[in-house]
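Q: Convert this sequence to structure tokens.
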Amino acid sequence: RRGMTLQGTPVVDERLLASGDEAGTAPGDRKFRPDVEGLRAVAVLLVVLYHAGVPRITGGYVGVDVFFVISGFVITGLLLRERSGTGRTSILGFYARRVRRILPAATLVIVATVAAAYLVLGVVSGNYVADDGRWAAVFLANFHFEAVGTNYLTAALPPSPLQNFWTLSVEEQFYVVYPTLFLLVARVRGRFSLRTRMSVALGVVIVASYWLSVTQTASHPASAYFSPFTRAWELALGALVAVSTTWLKHLPAQVAALLTWAGLAAVMYSAFVFNAQTAYPGSLVAVPVVGAALIIAGGVAVPRWGAEPLLGLDPFRQLGKRSYSLYLWHWPILIIAAEQVGKSSLPVGDNLILVVIAVLLSMATYHVVENPIRHWRLPTRTSVVAGVALVLATVLVLSVTINAESAPPTPNQVVP
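A:
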């Protein structure tokens, strides 16, 4: 990205955007939040170790909820910075950034997982995974898995190797609506600031979505688990923290520090106390979600004795940068390896070896695909068109693959 000439002057690759180390903060906050980067690492570690079957991390699935809060915070920070810097909000630009950020790594993992399923598990399983891949490619995996009756927490049979894509689908469905909501609120004229107006709008979303989470979990738990409507409040709470940074930065240092440690304790408590029998998301989802929000909110004031010195350690930050790729890779690897030997899961020791493989793949994906592509200097329309084309091409290739593999043998074929 950047180099030095022999004279010591910096050389910038004009094909690339500015370095991407920023953590998507709002104006008034620091441009880079090491605590947020480290919180990503905590989230992905909880999810990965839970899926690997590590004892006592019975509620590691709450890492997904932490990711939702971070995502809402980051995306809102980017929208606020754009509005502050340019006086406008580009919906097309928003989706161009999402395309460059999300699609390349996601498409790579989908295609690689389908190919591995055919090679390792055979044609029948491969066809099922390819069908799952079509839904994942168009960010409707959550509705697909809900429709086929998947119970994420208590399923006895091995789930789809692409089932972890339901979280990506929920996020992108939220972002179909959210930038438009932001733009509409920004265009409202009145005596109240944009941040104040957004706080009110987000408050309505938070209350309505959380109420739905509580009521729907009691009546239709599978639907509640995969629904973007029950999860929307988690992203909205992260967004609320972003719009509140100008107020949060004035928190007393002792209060801010206490908030960060209380938030981290809430996240860890839910990870070690919740389990497969916990009615989730329900009302208890508030424990890790509010906990994650408190960590980010308290960190705005940069308290000296807060959780940032821990979360900002280099190992956490490095893992946090690669958390997206690791999240994508770890699940297909664990599930395909287990299904290959006819089991729903492998022993913890074997799974941890597979996690190491996933970490190595995520490092390669981050450095070769994810990070370079998201910083390409491409025209906005080109990025969006390329994203739509990539999605359509993925669906077409998977559909052709399913049909080809499912075709009955011709009379001249010898079937072993």
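Strands lie at 2-4, 10-12.
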